[in-house]
Design brief:
With 656 residues, the chain is an alpha+beta fold. It has five domains: 52 residues, Helix Hairpins (Orthogonal Bundle), CATH 1.10.287; 234 residues, DNA ligase/mRNA capping enzyme (D-amino Acid Aminotransferase, Chain A, domain 1, 2-Layer Sandwich); 97 residues, OB fold (Dihydrolipoamide Acetyltransferase, E2P) (Beta Barrel); 146 residues, 5' to 3' exonuclease, C-terminal subdomain (DNA polymerase, domain 1, Orthogonal Bundle); 67 residues, 3-Layer(aba) Sandwich (Rossmann fold), CATH 3.40.50. 36% of the residues lie in helices and 21% in strands. It contains 24 helices and 22 strands. It is globular.
């Protein structure tokens, strides 16, 4: 290759890889599959070997892709947390083996867990700090979140200092539960278990981490004071005896043929594992020999990671099944003759959405290529061959669950059912209706609501106020005390402000703030029921889209009937907001940055309690910008427009 062409390609690859490093390590939202990333990295390595003068210190081939997130305090690792050199063929693996003196060691072979690498530090038998790998030298202190992982021992019977390295992962069953929960709440689904584990561990709220059911496998001693070892496998056995959850299996091999045999065995069984793996790790077992071999600037010379290629199969598309999710989204699923992928039988795979089907020109009878994303969720990749007279599949114009018309928001790929009472969406509506920001019915979580639905005790939100509590008490995991608490919570919800009720209805485009504006403007539900689009547009802060959505919902006969039924049950239909001190009336505030003591939501509530309004964007109508640290572009725009900028201290003076 010509030098100038190579230079341009190296720059292009470096830029692309740095971008994907950030998406993978920092944002926990990868956009490409690992195999595609590895292909680009390998191409860059080859070019840098061919043209050494193009190799730079900041090249992705020379650095671990992570970095400490500013949300967490930094931890400088006592022992560098290195990454591993990847190999993609047995020939490359054999080349690694040829550099190892087998008279001095054996190999250990173990699964490469696809998760987030962390360090756990113990002193005098107690766990005192845990951190992410970061860039290998500096990581993030995530101790509070690691304490939520049950498989991490909080105390061990070892008096010296100990630092171990492990991989935090999300079990496949937990990942599928998370996807179901995210679908129910209308959230963007996690891409894969590794992405989900990383995002869960790097939460500011450790309660969220606890809910995600993470686990860990320990695979290395980073540092130990008070004991010595001669081999890697010996350290794993020692850690297992201390109560650590070590790798579920690891094997010693005396030659490369045995190593390859073990890698193939692991690969053939990976579909049956309860956790996700993306390869197998081959390590020199003798620890003193490891020291002699040393490391490069990025990788140890005594270990490599064999990466399994993504397994793909061709099959004929028999039919496309349309499911309706809890958010009303219509999801196409490919149905085909059973094939085997990653050790498991597969006969169904996601087709994502209409745009995907059109872009790939997929039709019934076509030969399609299927693979498992992250070895868990089967997906259709492309069409290998069109059948005779193939036509691109067209999504239905009506919901297969309730028969209502479907719609597609501008800028969205998803098609949704228009019927708010669609049976397929009922559970999500109930979850939203009972949530804290809506009617706040404590004790009615998703699990309880599912029980009530399955038992036939509810079929809509009105039924919540007409429950047969004797029947509820007979349900599994319920008793007199819990039923009494539930009864009190439901009764208490009847007295909520009508703003909460409006938000609880789950009207398209109408959030908590818009619901509060409607409550303040109209005062009661009857005025809202009689309002026109023009009346809604007269609300300060309402645009045409919000006005149309509100008018359509409240003019619907089913809505009117539902509201009358709720009124009969004693649910409040009036605004309870009385502003005694209206010092901020007519004033609009924009909140930006991190405030020293107040949360932005708390400051917003204070402003509204004094008759003021908050906005998410700065404009000429903005009166004040309340700015904290790292205020960003909103502060810059306020300065440009000459809008008054105040600190939290000045704000607190205003509300004395």
């Amino acid at each position: 290759m010509d030098f100038n062409v190579a230079k341009l390609r190296v720059e292009e690859l470096s830029k692309e890889l740095k971008y994907h490093n950030k998406k993978y390590y920092i944002d926990d939202s990868p956009e490409i599959e690992d195999f595609e990333y590895d292909r680009m990295l390998r191409e860059l390595e080859d070019l840098e070997k061919e043209f050494p003068e193009l190799l730079k210190e900041d090249s992705p081939t020379q650095n671990v892709g992570g970095a400490a997130n500013r949300l967490f305090s930094e931890v400088t690792h006592t022992v560098k947390m290195e990454s591993l050199q990847d190999v993609f063929s047995f020939d490359e693996l054999k080349a690694f083996g040829e550099k190892i003196d087998m008279t001095r060691t054996q190999f250990s072979v173990e699964p490469k867990i696809d998760g987030l690498s962390v360090s756990l530090e113990y002193k005098d038998g107690l766990f005192f700090r845990g951190s992410t790998r970061g860039d290998g030298v500096v990581g993030e202190d995530v101790t509070a979140n690691l304490l939520q992982i049950k498989s991490i021992p909080k105390a061990i019977k070892f008096d010296g200092e100990l630092e171990v390295r492990g991989e935090v992962y999300m079990p496949k069953a937990s990942f599928l539960k998370l996807l179901k929960r995210q679908e129910l709440m209308g959230e963007t689904p996690a891409k894969n278990p590794r992405n989900a584990a990383a995002g869960s561990l790097r939460q500011k709220n450790s309660k969220i981490t606890a809910e995600r059911e993470l686990s860990i496998f320990i695979f290395n001693i980073q540092r130990i004071v008070g004991k010595e070892f001669s081999s890697h496998v010996e350290t794993l056995d020692f850690l297992k005896n201390l109560g650590f959850s070590t790798l579920p299996f690891y094997t010693k091999c005396s030659d490369m043929d045995s190593v390859i045999e073990e890698i193939e065995r692991i690969g053939n069984n990976r579909g049956n594992l309860e956790f996700d793996i993306d390869g197998a790790v081959v390590k020199v077992d003798d620890l003193s020999y490891r020291e002699d071999l040393g490391s490069t600037s990025k990788f140890p010379k005594w270990a490599v990671a064999y990466k399994y290629p993504p397994e793909e199969k061709e099959t004929v598309l028999k039919e496309i099944e349309i499911g309706v999710g809890r958010t009303g989204a219509l999801t196409p699923t490919a149905i085909f003759d059973t094939i085997t992928l990653a050790g498991t039988s597969v006969s169904r795979a996601t087709l994502h959405n209409e745009d995907f089907i059109v872009s790939k020109e997929i039709g019934i009878g076509d030969t399609i290529i299927v693979r498992k994303a992250g070895d868990i969720i089967p997906e259709v990749l492309a069409v290998a061959k069109h059948c005779k007279n193939s036509t691109v599949y067209k999504m239905p114009t009506h919901c297969p669950s309730c028969g209502s018309a479907v719609y597609k928001e501008e800028g969205e790929a998803v098609i949704r059912c228009t019927n708010a009472e669609c049976p397929a969406q009922l559970l999500r509506h109930l979850i939203h209706f009972t949530s804290r920001d809506a009617m706040d019915i404590e004790g009615l979580g998703s699990a309880v609501l599912e029980q009530l639905l399955d038992a036939g005790l509810i079929s809509n939100i009105v039924d919540l106020y007409n429950l047969d509590y004797d029947a509820v008490e007979k349900l599994e995991r319920t008793g007199k005390k819990s039923v009494e608490n539930l009864k009190n919570a439901i009764e208490k919800s009847k007295s909520q402000d009508v703003a909460k009720l409006i938000f609880a209805f789950g009207i398209r485009h109408i959030g908590a703030k818009a619901a509060a504006l409607m409550s303040e403007h109209f005062g009661n539900i009857d005025a809202i029921l009689n309002a026109t689009v023009e009346d809604f547009e007269a609300i300060d802060g309402f645009g045409h889209i919000l006005a149309v959505s509100a008018a359509e919902f409240f003019s619907h006969p089913d809505t009117k009937q539902m509201i009358e039924s709720l009124r009969e049950k004693g649910v409040n239909m009036n605004s309870l907001k009385v502003i005694e001190d209206a010092r901020f009336k007519g004033l609009t505030f924009v909140l930006t940055g991190t405030l020293p003591t107040l949360k932005r939501s708390e400051a917003g509530e204070i402003i509204e309690s004094f008759g003021g309004k908050t906005s998410s964007s700065v404009s000429k109508k903005t009166d004040y910008v309340l700015a904290g640290e790292e205020a960003g572009s909103k502060l810059t725009k306020a300065e440009t427009l000459g809008i008054k900028i105040i600190t939290e201290e000045e704000f607190l003076e205003m509300i004395k």
